[in-house]
Sequence to fold (48 residues):
Amino acid sequence: MDETIHQLKKEELMTLKDAAVVIRKPDGKIKVKQATHLVGAGMVGGAF
Fold:
């Protein structure tokens, strides 16, 4: 699926502002991987 998203973005058929993957580990804990770091994006956006 990751390949499909990258291809759609490359062909400019889709615009992706942010994405996240949520993983539940065997111990029950949840891990979230985010494509865009919100802190950095907020700092850049706030600067303007």
Summary: The mean pLDDT is 75. The two ends are 34 Å apart (CA to CA).
